Fold Putative phage tail protein.
Amino acid sequence: MGNCKLMITTALVGFSMAEPAEAAPVGVWVASAIGLSAGTAAFAVVAGVVTMAISVGINLIAQKLRGKPKQEAVRAELTRPTSLPAYRFVYGKTWAPGTPVGFKVVGRVLYICYLLNSRPSAGPFTVLFDKRQVEKDGNEFDFGVNGGARATNSPFSWPGGFASHATYWIGRGDQTTCPARIVSETDGYFTASDAWRGRTVLWARLEFGPDESARERWPASPPELNVDGNWSLVEDPRSGGAASFSRNQALIVLDALRNNPVRPYDDRYLRLDTFSWAADVADQTVPVKVGGTIPCYRCDGVLVFSDGAELEDQLEPLLAAGGSRLTRIGGRLGIIPATPRASVRTITDFTDGQPLDLVRWGSSDDLYTEAVARYPAPDRAYESAETPVYVVPGAQAADGGVAKRLQLDLDFVTDYRQAGRLAKIAVERSRLQRRISGELFPDCFDLVAGSVCDVDLGAPYGSWQGKYEVESIAPTAGINDDESITIRLPVTLAESSDAVFAWNPATDEQDVMPGAFDGGIGRVQPPPAIVMTTGTAAAQQSGDTVIPGVIAAWNGSTSASVTGYEYEWIEHSLLNFTLAIRPGGKLPLDAADELGVFTVPLQFVVIGAEYQIRVRSIGIYGESDWITSDPIIAAGPSSAVAVPAAITATAQSANRINITTTQASDNNARHLLIYGNDVNTSLTAELLWTVAAGASVSVTRSETGLSSATTRYYFARARDQFGNLSGFTDSASATTA
């Protein structure tokens, strides 16, 4: 690692470009102000002390999750059309959302320009419209009249690639003009000077195409654009500052400090040696469970700059991607990577200049027993995913049996293995609680915020022995005479441990189920099946009135784009075999019950008639095909009907018998059914008459055409308005003469 003292002698004076008045060493002014003469030993020492005056590290042990992950919200916001697009840097390899910054419709063609990156980009690129990858031929960097890339896959082209509905051009930041075809076909809306020089943009010519497939091809207007690729070119101080594509986390932090539009840093106010050291750490390889290795700290995402927010806050997600921290000292900014570091000094004593303060336990608000990290997952179209929980062994028991979870937003980490490792580092850091405050002897003058040292105070402070990191140190000087000064070093030390960074993939890495994102937009799917019900379950009752009905029910469609359902009833006439379609209605998604089932009734049905229902899904991408239920014969509610009161049979001649029966005293009874048989059983009896008869009404009928000396047996039963039947009466018989 080289000279560890120099590597961790880092500083942060603020995220701002130093003004000219601040450029001179502060120590010169202080030394002169207290009366020391230039050229004396005391002058030189005081000047050096004050130049390195206050050294304070920014401790990013944990960032608490607040609401929706920032990267997910940023990506959604950047897809919205605007004439004032947000200034953004796209880093690493990721999807860059396109912001529509100008568009014009000519006939059935949309001409549109999307801003991807507010600076030049490396490429190559893969284009996705509405999260569907575009396959292409042609050259997207050719801005001539016949240039551009043409989509060759469905639904962006005609079958067989005969003609394309989408042509696009990409400017990587080195373009000097707008594509010639865009200029010539937009009647002056786009001009040759609309080049977006120095920016990465995409122009597209999108044809609406046939109406029957247009909703599937262009479900949104304007289409949502994402472009996958290798993005910003960053300089590497290790190779002489040459700019090239990189996913190295430390180099990306350095690039954002140097080139941000808020307050860019000049190299004079940066400790470039610390960024080189952190870049080496980020390039180190880490073994993974399945075999092989991955880089230690990569950084991929979209950084949006905004006015009114501290630059430090805006760059925090980049630092979190490497678990790194910034430190400040005397006007120069550096970085401390998340890696084990050797101790540069052993502290054995403190002065009596201030009381020694030993803190054993930290605040419970900053103490955690487990951690998870949320990160944008490439296999889920960069939507938020969560790592498995990492539990610190023994931590919950040590804290009294109560689990406390740390949640991290890692907006620039796209690999779950890196995210899981950073979650472990963060929660293990939170468990280091010892703090020591005091005043060091002058021989510790070279310690700065971020320095690692050993503490060995001897008895009775044996429990405080171990490795610590300097949180802050503020050297001050008092004058003895023109040749000598007194140096004081107030310091705060925080417990540190190399075990925080230990990683065993066999035990620490946890498996994550891979996503199966499919950007294809097919036809909206109808409901899977329809269940029809009639009878008692479908009847409606209001007071003494009962209304028969038919009920249809179905589960929701499997298409996530569905917003509701439309249905129609089909009635079959059993008399003339005609079919009639009754209008139904529409149901929104919130019409489903707790189980997600949709139910609609059909009332005033004809008992004995046949009914069906057809249903289709309504979605943001159009309608599904109709699905039709099996037919059902309408029935009324089931109920008990009393048996008719009596039945008698009397022979009138050699070929005639009179039958008399009396309806039951049941107000629900509506008809009498009279049956006859040659044997004494109702099971095979033939229905002879159906007679309308209310309660207690007597009915007489005659069976004629019989042979002489013939014995016949008769039965009766009642039926209500819904077709429910009573039991049979006992038989009555007679024999013709």
Summary: The longest strand covers residues 484-495. The chain has twelve helices and 48 strands.
